[in-house]
Structures are given as C-alpha cells and as structure tokens.
Amino acid sequence: MEQPKHVYGIYIRCTPQQLWDGITNGGGARQYFHDRAIESDWEVGSPVAFRNRDGSLVIEGEVLEVDEPRRLSITWHVLYNPAVASERPSRVTWEIVQHGVACRLSLVHDDFDGETPTYHGVAEGWLVLICSLKSLLETGKPLLVALD
Fold first, then answer.
1. What percent of the chain has pLDDT over 70?
2. Cis-peptide into 69, omega within 30 deg
3. Helices in 8-116 by DSSP H: which ranges?
4. Do 23 and 116 meet the contact criterion of CB atoms below 8 Å apart?
5. Which residues, in sequence order, are CB contacts of 103 under 8 Å at separation 6+?
6. DSSP state, 135?
C-alpha cells in the first residue's frame, strides 16, 4: 500500500534563483510563512529551524538534499502542537524547473507513518504558503490567508 503524501504544483513568474531564495531566505520567509523565520546554512546534514518572532522553535528538521537552485529536501517535525510533537519527522521536498519566464514549483510532503495528525494538519497549509510565496515573488506582496 502506498503511503499518504501531499503533492502541490504551481507556476511562478520568476527565475529559479529567485524562487530558491524565496524558499531559503530566513527573514524573507516571515512575509509568507505565518510570520516565521527559517534558519539553516542549507548544507546536507545541517539543522533547519522555523521560529516565531519571540525565537520559539515551532518546526525543526534536517537538510537531506541540496541542489541549488533546483531541489531541496528536509525533514519536518512539528513542535508547536503537543498532539504531533511525538510523531516521527516527515519529509518536505521542493523542486524548481524553469519554463520560459516562469518556474514550476513542485512541493511534496511525504514519509508519514500513515494519515497522522501532521499529515492532516499540513494539508491546506502548504497550498496557502506556496500561493503566498507566488504572490510575494510576482507582486512584492504576500497573499495573507487566514485558515479556520
């Protein structure tokens, strides 16, 4: 039986490097990633931290694969919700492919232990985040959507 996963794809008018920087730029992520900064040196084996403005750690991970500006894969371990903090980390992979003046961003979140609370919790969140990133890169303003 195939393990559950989330797969998203979107075209963004930008260069691969602009998209890569949008994903990996720590402070810039605050604009589209729920006001959270991303911290890492983006070397394989290095930690990845997603932090609130107060510095509290909300998501942690490890860099699994780096092929700048084409592919990035990390582990994903949610800490802000006690119901999911005990779960084994899952995996998030971004792939960037240039198509003329645009790039196709594919995001796959997989390696779950079944339909876990994390699996259900990230379902709509990723779509909002990549749409907000698209808006930020194309217009200079993120798309701020409040999820219920």
1. 98
2. yes
3. 16-24, 82-85
4. no
5. 11, 12, 14, 15, 16, 19, 96, 97
6. H
The architecture in CATH of the region 6-25+65-139 reads: 2-Layer Sandwich (3.30)
Q: Which residues of the chain have pLDDT under 70?
A: 1, 147-148
- Give helix 117-139 / helix 16-24 axis angle, nearest 10°: 130
Task: Break the chain into its structural domains and give their ranges.
Answer: 6-25+65-139
What residue type is 20 in one-letter code? W
Q: Does residue 107 contact residue 130 with C-beta atoms inside 8 Å?
A: yes
Contact 92, 38 (CB under 8 A): no
Span 109-122, pLDDT tens digits: 999 999 999 999 89
